[in-house]
Amino acid sequence: TPAFLDVRDLRVHFPTEDGVVRSVDGVSFTLDKGRTLGIVGESGSGKSVTSLALLGLHKGTRALVSGEVWLDGRELVALPEKEMRQLRGSTVSMIFQDPLSALHPFFTVGAQIAEAYRVHHQVSRKEANDRAVEMLQRVGIPQPRRRAKDYPHQFSGGMRQRAMIAMSLVCDPALLIADEPTTALDVTVQAQILDLIGDLQQEFGSAVVIITHDLGVVAGVADDILVMYGGRRIEYGTVRDVLKRPQHPYTWGLLQSMPHIAGDVDRRLNPIPGSPPSLINLPGGCAFHPRCPHKGQVPDGRCSLERPELVPVPGTAEHIAACHLVADIRGGENTRAAQ
Ligand code: SF4
Ligand code: MG
Question: Belongs to which family (predicted)?
Answer without folding.
Answer: Belongs to the ABC transporter superfamily.
